[in-house]
């Protein structure tokens, strides 16, 4: 393998975790190549096109599985399930379970800034890997991998055990009840390696929820959850006919 290729031991571990062996090792390596690495090594490729493809493949399989597996869910409930399963946080968790962070090829700057555990990089890389599986081995190979990785999370979500995407849920509820979209305002404090974020969500100019987390996403989700609870318990005001 070339000096820019992924390490044999780690890629073998990844393939074992996925339950698949790539026929095209170059395609696999491309899926693991972050743009920062491609820039430093002056490569003509990175994993962004494969990420685009993998996002579509993942969406198709998850949507199909949700439709077949949960016949009692309405269209709106299916949409919320899909949003909860294929959001960045959920994809990053799956990527961590697979050990994907140890295999991604990063530039020195991203490496030093903790890129191997950044949710955005992990989520994008997972989609790229799935796109590579689809291109290399076809949908018949990609589908069982996706179903094995995501079906347990889907079942847990439907049972109420999974993590909800409250930002999406709140947006739908607020649009229906208040004819307004949530607005998030972020405050941060602490050094770069130990930042703490506080998010406040406003609806129609009024604060409805606050959340604190180690990332903006975590803080916003907590704020959205608090606002969702308040909005759900709020009596319908005169002039508003939302459900």
What does this structure look like?
The chain is mainly α and 243 residues long. The chain has 2 domains: 151 residues, Ribonuclease iii, N-terminal Endonuclease Domain, Chain A (Orthogonal Bundle); 68 residues, Double Stranded RNA Binding Domain (2-Layer Sandwich), CATH 3.30.160. A hairpin with a 2-residue loop joins strand 2 and strand 3. The chain is globular and about 55 Å long.
How is the topology of this model organized?
Elements: H1 8-18, H2 25-31, H3 35-41, H4 48-69, H5 75-85, H6 88-98, H7 108-112, H8 119-137, H9 139-158, H10 166-177, E1 183-189, E2 196-203, E3 206-213, H11 216-233
Antiparallel strand pairs: 1-2, 2-3
From the structure above, extract its key features:
243 residues; Double Stranded RNA Binding Domain; 3-stranded antiparallel beta sheet; single chain
- What's the architecture of the largest domain in CATH terms? Orthogonal Bundle
CATH topology of the largest domain: Ribonuclease iii, N-terminal Endonuclease Domain, Chain A
Strand content: 5-15%
Oligomeric state as shown: single chain
CATH superfamily of the largest domain: Ribonuclease III domain
Count of individual beta strands: 3
Describe, in short, the structure shown:
By secondary structure, the chain is mainly alpha-helical. The protein has eleven helices and three strands; from the N terminus they run ααααααααααβββα.
């Amino acid at each position: 393998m070339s000096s820019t290729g992924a390490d044999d031991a780690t890629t073998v571990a990844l393939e074992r975790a996925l339950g698949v062996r790539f026929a095209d090792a170059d395609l696999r390596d491309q899926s693991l190549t972050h743009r920062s690495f491609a820039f430093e090594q002056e490569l003509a490729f990175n994993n962004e096109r494969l990420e685009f493809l993998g996002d579509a493949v993942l969406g198709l399989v998850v949507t199909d599985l949700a439709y077949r597996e949960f016949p009692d869910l309405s269209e709106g409930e299916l949409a919320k399930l899909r949003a909860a399963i294929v959001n960045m946080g959920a994809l990053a968790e799956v990527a961590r379970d697979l050990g994907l962070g140890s295999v991604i090829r990063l530039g020195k700057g991203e490496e030093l800034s903790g890129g191997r555990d950044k949710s955005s990089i992990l989520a994008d890389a997972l989609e790229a890997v799935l796109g590579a599986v689809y291109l290399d081995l076809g949908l018949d190979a990609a589908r069982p991998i996706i179903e094995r990785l995501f079906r347990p999370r889907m079942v847990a979500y439907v049972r109420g055990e999974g993590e909800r995407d409250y930002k999406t849920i709140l947006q739908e509820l607020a649009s229906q009840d208040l004819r307004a979209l949530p607005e998030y305002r972020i405050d941060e404090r602490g050094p770069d390696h130990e930042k703490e974020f506080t998010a406040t969500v406003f609806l129609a100019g009024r604060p409805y929820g606050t959340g604190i987390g180690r990332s903006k996403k975590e803080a916003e989700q907590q704020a959205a959850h608090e606002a969702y609870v308040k909005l759900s318990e709020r009596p319908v005001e005169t002039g508003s006919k939302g459900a």
